[in-house]
Write a structure and sequence with these properties.
This protein is mainly α. Helices cover about 70% and strands about 0% of the residues. It is built from 7 helices and no strands. It holds the Pfam family HTH_3.
């Protein structure tokens, strides 16, 4: 599981700096950086705050953080299509998705 990379990917897709996301998620920039580099474990409450700030359901973030070997019997093609569709959705600004 690479939840740090998933957070970073979503943050970049949203156009947020680490400073902006840390502010919205009510955590320090240094802690967010450590999470993104998988150098600190993330608490559920912090994960919820980050997901809320990114306007991303926790399930999507967990999917994006799942490594290839964790998908088991899922075909590589389906895995790629799901990831591609998810990233397309994340490319839209968060306020546009609420309309």
């Amino acid at each position: 599981m690479d939840i740090g990379n998933a957070i970073k990917t979503c943050r970049i897709r949203r156009g947020y700096s680490q400073t902006k996301l840390a502010e919205l998620a009510e955590c320090s920039v240094s802690y967010l950086s450590l999470i993104e580099h998988n150098q600190r474990d993330i608490t559920l409450s912090t994960l919820q705050k980050i997901c809320h700030a990114l306007h991303v359901p926790i399930g999507i973030l967990l999917f994006l953080g799942t490594s290839h070997d964790e998908f088991g019997e899922m075909s590589k093609e389906l895995e790629a299509e799901l990831a591609k569709s998810t990233l397309v959705l994340l490319s839209a600004p968060a306020n546009e998705q609420n309309n």
